[in-house]
Amino acid sequence: MNSRICILTESGDGIGFGHLTRMTALASQLSQSGDDVVLRVDHKGTGNLPQSQSWQILDWRRNPDVADGMDVAVVDSYLATAADYRALQRRGAKVVAIDDYNRLDYPVQAIVNPNPAFDPILSSSPSGHAHAARIGGAPWVLLRPEITNTPQKINHASTITRVVVTLGGSDVHGVLPKLLDCLIDRVPSMVVIAGNDDYAGKIRASHDCGNVQVHGMLNAAEMAATLAGCDLAVSACGQTLHELAFLGVPFVGIRVGDDQIPNQDHYLQTGLLGSKIDCQQDDWREQVLQELDALSSQSLRHGRSELGRSIIDGRGPERLSQLIRSL
After folding, report:
1. What dotted CATH number matches 4-143+314-326?
2. Residues spanned by CATH 3.40.50.2000 within the chain?
3. Residue 44 — φ and ψ, nearest 5°?
4. Does residue 290 sit in helix, strand or coil?
5. pTM of this structure
6. Beta carbons of 123 and 136 less than 8 angstroms apart
């Protein structure tokens, strides 16, 4: 029997697009399985949001009736409170919380951490909702089909000629211009994904160089092709690291928010990252250049590529879809 499922998430200023990215991956899998899926996005700020028939903009925390008639509500949010989750349950839906760092004591049926850094002990319930199923880890990483259908990078050039630079959809610390300043004379060709068209315009104006190509918002297919077509990526330590790992693209990771600490620490422990770079440390640019120098080694890039592909298998949406339908 097919299920009726609403997916609720957020994007925009101070949030970025990581939540929306992984929820579109889940929505695609559920729809492919024959379920009736609606995706609602609470979009903050004035930045552009790619238009799609697969979602609608809605401040769903103010409109919990979005869960009316639904079998399951899946929530991926840093803004929702415990009261918001209870409001959805009162509408009759079973609720699944997507959680990156044990943010709340969730009053839900299941809690899923779609990150390799998941620790079942650290993620145990602090108080009264121990009945909720708690799962996570690398098998549950949620990647869009445009990523998983892209051929993985097996062969690596002897030299680095093309680098992708992306810090997500919200550069709250103003890191991107400073990063480009330190890379522009070191990289033959850079593709910059600024996250939105307004910011892309500012970056083009400040870094009008022949070896820099700047994009704003890319759709999933464009993003997949851009990442797969580079020799190396310099990225924030969020959802994009998982996409790069699956594709086999070596990367330098820069932490731009505290929610990225678990990802960064995990990839450091596994060897996919060589340095713990924090954009709020004074020497972060020097660390980026040191990592870039280290990754000039073709064998190191090849080894990290193999490691990344072994960690992320791309079947997270399928597993989560099966869990949701079993509730």
Report:
1. 3.40.50.2000
2. 4-143+314-326, 147-311
3. -100, 145
4. helix
5. 0.93
6. yes
